[in-house]
Specification:
It is a single chain. By secondary structure, this protein is mostly helical. The longest helix is centred in the middle third of the chain and has 48 residues. Strands 1-2-3 form a three-stranded antiparallel beta sheet, with no helix packed on it. Helix 2 runs parallel beside helix 4. Strand 2 and strand 3 form a beta hairpin. It has four helices and three strands; from the N terminus they run βββαααα. The chain starts with 10 loop residues before the first strand and ends in a 6-residue tail after the last helix. 59% of the residues lie in helices and 9% in strands. It folds into three domains: 34 residues, no CATH class; 49 residues; 57 residues, no CATH class.
Length: 155
Amino acid sequence: MTDTASTDTLAIVLTDSTSGPQNDSLRTSVLAENGSVSENSSNWIPYAVGIGILILVGAAVAAMAYRVAQKRQDEKRREENVFDEVFDDVNNADKAKVLLKELKTKLHPDRFVSSDTAVMEAAQKIFQELNESKYSFSELQRIKEKAVDQGLISE
């Protein structure tokens, strides 16, 4: 058996490429085991670039989908928090009545008539907030803290 008749051999043939865009270079033709000829040994580069681009686009799409899902979860949490506040206010209605009565007696503007005008105006403003928020226990607690911070009432 001769080497030329064997199909297991790999032959590299250098040819002069005078026709085409690369007139000055030599092309390498590779004869593989199955008999196919590869004109250019760098045919895989465009495929690799294409696969790389697909991976980048897929990663970008996945990141955008993740951000959208996070946004939806945040909106859902906010809605749940609003409902929790509403239910807390409904459940604390009795507490709100007691706290409102206590704050109205302590913060009534008539109690601050002999005080400085700035203190009297602050008491009137807080009393007005009391009347606007009389059903919300959490708002009443906030108003009480504000009055304590301003020195209108003691804890």
